[in-house]
């Protein structure tokens, strides 16, 4: 991931630059929800600019809070926080899967529908990946691909809109609220706030298509 991926200063720029910025944000979210950040990624996040191109931009406040949390919370504490919230033995404090929020259990119908859509897009889960395809990190990776992929029959705004509305829009806000309510959340509370705001911007943009 490029250094620009940890800074939303590109958001609001027109044309290809804006699309690259969207893909980079999805890529950053995918990395941070898949595992605790590496020291290299965390250092880049700490050094990221916090100003949006236009003063008072909608994402500026929550992005600034995320960067501030990275500068305040040691990377080792973030790793512990990740395990406390999303890992450990047995049921995690917060499930990061769409099926859990939409059907109340893992591996339910939302996952089946997602797999059908991924198959139609020619995408499948790598063998080495343990998380199911409805994990928030995996869904963000798909969105990044749909923005930057070279096959325009797949990577286009219409496909992005359909995938986002079908597999992210209906549950992501509840996920963010659940994370924010966890007593152990600190860095990830800030990440949840930024995630919610970014997804709201995406939803509004897709509604205007």
UniProtKB/TrEMBL annotation:
Keyword Cell membrane appears in the UniProt entry: no
UniProt name for this protein: Molecular chaperone TorD family protein
Keyword vocabulary terms for this entry: Chaperone
Superkingdom assignment: Bacteria
Entries under PANTHER family matching the protein: CHAPERONE PROTEIN YCDY, DIMETHYL SULFOXIDE REDUCTASE CHAPERONE-RELATED
One Pfam family it belongs to: Nitrate_red_del
Gene3D superfamilies to which the protein is assigned, alphabetical: TorD-like
